[in-house]
């Protein structure tokens, strides 16, 4: 029997249940501090319901693993870091994902607001500003009821348009305070808050590309990572072979053609 009903609901439960609803099966991180409520919920029932945790010795490794997972599966990578140094250690991996348009949900813990400016261990780092230049979106959450919508918004942004990493900061109060059954009702199915179909090109830009190809004397196609994001390898190959256009890829497009 699942242990999820033994303890009262808290913010950690809302995080795990939101990830389960999204279909997340793998998260990468290092247990510590404020993140314990999330890992506790995973241990009580999350693992049984499908979430596998990959423990690392350093948060940077967790970030790179989540990046690799997203590249290999075409889905969303999830990594976690505790307050202060834990989040800072994720930066090199997040920069890589930002540069290559890889969708990551970067979860960082943060001390309770009451401890701001007190010199508390691992406190004092403005994580939102740290992540601002290298993520598409930054959200700080202070109360449990905010969690479902914050996760939904973050994932929608990460997976929409030009994909990329997003940063979700959970204050200690958001994770340790009690949640309600009403909060659970705010956890929606993915199709209710984000597009699930593969991204398509801008119709105007496509028409311009057709004109360019028709008038080009020696056309050459260089495909990028958008081919993988749109799952359009077969269309790319068909275009290249039908019209006898040589085709190559950028580093992010490697694997798109045989």
Automatic annotation (TrEMBL):
GO CC annotation terms, alphabetical: acetolactate synthase complex
SUPFAM superfamilies for the chain: DHS-like NAD/FAD-binding domain, Thiamin diphosphate-binding fold (THDP-binding)
Family affiliation: Belongs to the TPP enzyme family.
Cofactor: thiamine diphosphate
Protein name per Swiss-Prot or TrEMBL: Thiamine pyrophosphate enzyme N-terminal TPP-binding domain-containing protein
Domain Thiamine pyrophosphate enzyme central: 206-258
Residues of the Thiamine pyrophosphate enzyme N-terminal TPP-binding domain: 10-130
Single GO MF descriptor: magnesium ion binding
GO biological process, one term: L-valine biosynthetic process
Transmembrane segments: none
Coiled-coil ranges from the UniProt annotation: none
Annotated Pfam families: TPP_enzyme_M (PF00205), TPP_enzyme_N (PF02776)
């Amino acid at each position: 029997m699942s242990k999820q009903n033994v303890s009262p609901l808290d913010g950690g439960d809302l995080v795990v249940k939101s990830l389960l609803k999204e279909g997340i099966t793998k998260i990468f991180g290092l247990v510590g501090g404020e993140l314990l409520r999330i890992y506790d919920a995973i241990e009580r029932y999350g693992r049984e319901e499908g979430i596998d945790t990959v423990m690392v010795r350093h948060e940077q490794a967790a970030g790179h693993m989540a990046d690799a997972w997203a590249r290999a599966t075409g889905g969303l990578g999830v990594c976690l870091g505790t307050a202060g140094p834990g989040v800072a250690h994720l930066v090199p991996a997040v920069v890589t994902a930002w540069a290559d348009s890889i969708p990551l949900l970067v979860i960082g813990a943060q001390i309770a607001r009451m401890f701001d400016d007190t010199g508390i261990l691992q406190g004092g780092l403005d994580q939102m500003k740290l992540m601002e230049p290298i993520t598409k979106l930054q959200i700080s959450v202070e109360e449990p009821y905010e969690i479902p919508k914050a996760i939904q918004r973050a994932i929608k942004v990460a997976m929409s348009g030009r994909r990329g990493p997003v940063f979700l900061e959970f204050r200690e109060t958001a994770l340790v305070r009690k949640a309600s059954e009403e909060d659970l009702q705010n956890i929606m199915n993915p199709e209710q808050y984000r597009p699930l179909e593969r991204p398509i090109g801008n119709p105007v830009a496509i028409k311009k590309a057709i004109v360019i190809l028709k008038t080009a004397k020696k056309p050459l196609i260089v495909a990028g990572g958008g081919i993988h994001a749109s799952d359009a390898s077969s269309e790319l190959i068909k275009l290249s072979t039908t019209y006898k256009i040589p085709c190559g890829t950028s580093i992010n497009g490697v694997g798109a053609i045989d």
